[in-house]
């Protein structure tokens, strides 16, 4: 059968006719005229190749075929209703796994508090923090559905991606206390020691190196690591330097910081998800909590 030839409104009318076993009462229930309900009954008879309702003594009764249709018809109509207008599910009843793409900064600051919030409000939501591969990879993963939420720098807008600004960050140069570069820190001292560079993709250069090259300078990148979390201990145990987002530097005073000796642009961190997920209750709750934690 070609479903395009079937008027689904007939099934709604048939459901009322089978419930009431009476054309006029079914018409009243649906807000139809009695003739319109009678016409619909004739069309249903043609569709199912059965009388469906038979005249008895002063009443009508369902044929065996009609009786067999009642339960599957109600299940079908309930399924269509749930598809078009799904019932609201309580946050506490959601069972869902959400994949979040982000670097260890800001994961260092948000995962613990996020799990606390989920334990209280949405205990059925599980979190997967995915390896960070850069903003373009994160955007592509949001589009193809392999990532649910991304926290990144998204410099270009995309009509398919919902993107919210979280915070603006700036960089500082960090080193161990008592570092020989600290006394009279300047460009020469900054370039006189090897640097630690953080790159999830293993890149040995950053935009800072391009800026240095334009000015006729270069630095030695002595170590590339995949996460910011590794850097403080490495700095404390060596004479290496690192340029870090200010919020990554421990507040304990275990590192000494300076403003970069050349102009270095900061960055704006964004929270993003695909617009097709706007009505995903679990995702929206997690996104809201992440935004609150980072702001």
Q: How would you describe this protein?
A:
This protein is of the alpha/beta class. The chain has 10 helices and 12 strands. It has a 5-stranded mixed beta sheet, sandwiched between helices. It has a 5-stranded mixed beta sheet with strand order 9-8-10-7-11. Strands 1-2 form a two-stranded antiparallel sheet. It is rod-shaped and about 110 Å long. It starts with 8 loop residues before the first helix and ends with a helix. The mean pLDDT is 90.
Tally the helices: what do you get?
A: 10
Question: Based on helices, strands and strand pairing, what is the structural class?
Answer: alpha/beta
Walk across the major sheet and give the strand order.
4-3-5-12-6
- Rg of Cα set: 32 Å
| Unreliable sequence segments | none
Shape: rod-shaped
First and last CA, distance? 56 Å
What assembly state would you assign to the polypeptide chains in this entry? single chain
List the helices and strands in order: HHHEEHEHEHEEEHEHEHEEEH
Mean pLDDT: 90
Q: Helix fraction?
A: 25-40%
In this structure, how is the largest beta sheet organized?
5 strands, mixed
Query: Can you count the beta strands?
Result: 12
Strand content: 15-25%
